Amino acid sequence: MQTIAATNYSIFFNELGYEKLATYLLPAQYSKIFILVDENTSQYCLSHFLNNLTTEIELEIIELEAGEIHKNITTCFEVWSALSELGADRKSIIINLGGGVITDLGGFVACTFKRGIDFINVPTTLLAMVDASVGGKNGIDLGNLKNQIGVIREPKAVLVDTEFLSTLSQKEMRSGLAEMLKHGLIFDKEYWNQFKNLNNLNTDYLNTLIHRSIEIKNTIVSQDLNENGIRKALNFGHTLGHAIESYFLDKKNKSPLLHGEAIAVGMILESYISREKGLLTHDEYHEIKYIIKDIYERIEFDSEDIKNIQDLLIFDKKNEFGKVQFSLLDGIGKIKINQSTDKQLIVNAFEDYSR
C-alpha cells in the first residue's frame, strides 16, 4: 500500500513501514526506545513487532492493563514514573503498540513527559488503524467522560501493519468498521457504497478499504488540525455515540460497549436527526439505518437511559457557549457542522432506532 503523507509525518504500511522505521530509530537520533503495550498486545503482537524491528538502540517495554477503564490520569502517572525510573530523557522515543487506548494515552504521555518527547504509533486494531492513531489527537478520559483531557500533537510516524488484524475477534473488527462506514458517509458516497455487500471481502480488498479510510481522515485533518472547522465532520455519530459509550462504561448494570458499537448507534440516531432537519432523504436514512443495523447487534434503551445519555451531552468537546453541537449528514457523502437540535428530536431518534 502506498505511503500517505500527513502534514508533518507519514503513514507507512506493512513491510515498507518497518524499513522506514529503521531509518528513524538511529542511535544518533534517540537515546532509548520505550515500547508501550497492554497485556493483549504484549501477548499477541509484541513478538511479531520486535521480530520486524531493526535498531541498535536499547529497548524497554512498559506494559499496562487493557481496557478503556485504564485510560486515565492514574495510568499516566504510572507510565511517567516508569519512564523516569528506567532512565528516559528528552531524546527518548515512545512507540505506542496497541489499540486506541494505547495510542491515545501513549501519545498524551509522550507530549507531557519532560515537556514533550517523540512518539510513533503502531496501531494493532482496525479501529486504531483507521482512526485513533492518525490525526494527532492524544488524550485520556475524565472519569467516564471520553477524551476530556488531551493535546493535539502529531507523531513522528505511523506504521500500519495489517498482519495484526489476525489477532482480533469479529467483535473488535466490527468496532473498527464503524469508523470506516463514517468516513464514507461524511466524505465519499462511492466508498460508502462498497460496504453494501461485504460477502466477497478478502485480505487485499480489506487492505484497500483501510487505506482509503485513512486517506479520507488524513485529507480532512490536514485542512484543520486543531478542529476549528471541517475536522468537526469526523465527529458525525460521536456526539450521541460518545455519550452512549460513557453511560454504558459507568453503569454497573450495563455491559460496556466497544467504541465502534456505540458510534454505530450514534450514526443511526444522528442520521435520523439529519432526516428530520431536511438534510437527508427518507430513503437515504433507511439505507444507513438498515445497513448499520445489519452489522451491529441492537442495543436496548429505556426512558431512563435516554434521559441520562442526554444529560451527558453537555460534556461533548464540540459544545460552544453551552450549546450541544452536532455534525449532521447533508446527503450521503457530505456533512454540515455546528448544527443544533432539541431534546425531543433526540428522544424521537432513540424511539425510531428501537423499532
From TrEMBL:
Its cofactor is NAD(+); Co(2+). Keywords: Cobalt, Lyase, Metal-binding, NAD, Nucleotide-binding, Zinc. Residues 62-174 form the 3-dehydroquinate synthase N-terminal domain. GO terms for molecular function: 3-dehydroquinate synthase activity. It holds the Pfam family DHQ_synthase. Gene3D superfamilies: 3.40.50.1970, Dehydroquinate synthase-like - alpha domain. The keyword Metal-binding applies. Residues 176-319 form the 3-dehydroquinate synthase C-terminal domain. Catalyzes the conversion of 3-deoxy-D-arabino-heptulosonate 7-phosphate (DAHP) to dehydroquinate (DHQ). This is 3-dehydroquinate synthase. It comes from Flavobacterium fragile.
